[in-house]
Amino acid sequence: MPIIQLHTYINAPVQRCFDVARDIDIHVASTKHTGEQAIAGRTSGLIESGETVTWRAKHFGIWQNLTSKITDFNFPVFFADEMVAGAFKSFRHEHYFTGDDKQTIMRDEFTFESPLGLLGKLANWLFLKKYMNNLLLKRNLVIKEMAEKG
Fold first, then answer.
1. Which of 86, 139, 113, 137 is closest to 3 using CA atoms?
2. How many separate domains does the chain show?
3. β-pairing, 52-59 with 62-74?
4. For residue 23, what is the DSSP state?
5. Of 7, 39, 98, 99, which shows the fewest CB atoms inside 10 Å?
6. How far apart are alpha carbons 141 and 128 in whole angstroms?
7. What CATH code is carried by the domain that includes residue 106?
8. Distance between CA atoms of residues 129 and 45, nearest Å
9. In the β-sheet with 37-41, what is the strand arrangement from edge to edge?
């Protein structure tokens, strides 16, 4: 299974970064290049433990739906979301926050498994891991910008 790990340094308090990272409206803004919208479950505001959200977005020229659920939640240092339904065979996205009142290190660990066996593994190697890495990097830049604005 591919694993993507990112570290983002944010000049803002941990609690603010935690809330910005789980804000549905900011998520939509961070993925505007995909046309992503929240269409079911929690569709606005701060997602909480046990809640789901269904996203609709265009990836690789195809409109897709993906439902994820907040499966672990420890305010303000950690939360994880996992795919309930969607194009992946599975995924888990862990969000870690450490720091103080001035700077936060946000660490992402995104683990996914593609469908279609060997063909999926080939897609991971050829383009999917890079695509997902770039998607998360863009999202993290928006989180950083919004958290630093206050």
1. 113
2. 1
3. antiparallel
4. B
5. 7
6. 20
7. 3.30.530.20
8. 29
9. 3-10, 104-113, 90-99, 78-85, 62-74, 52-59, 37-41
| The two structure tokens encoding residue 77 | 């240092």
Upstream peptide bond of 2 is cis (omega within 30 degrees of 0):
no
Q: Which residues partner with 1 through β-bridges?
A: none
Tell me the pLDDT of the chain (150 aa) as tens digits.
899 999 999 999 999 999 999 999 999 999 999 999 999 999 999 999 999 999 999 999 999 999 999 999 999 999 999 999 999 999 999 999 999 889 999 999 999 999 988 888 888 888 999 999 999 999 999 999 999 998
Q: Alpha-carbon distance 100 to 76, whole Å?
A: 11
Per this entry, what is the length of the chain?
150
Tokens of 18: 């935690």
pTM over 0.70: yes
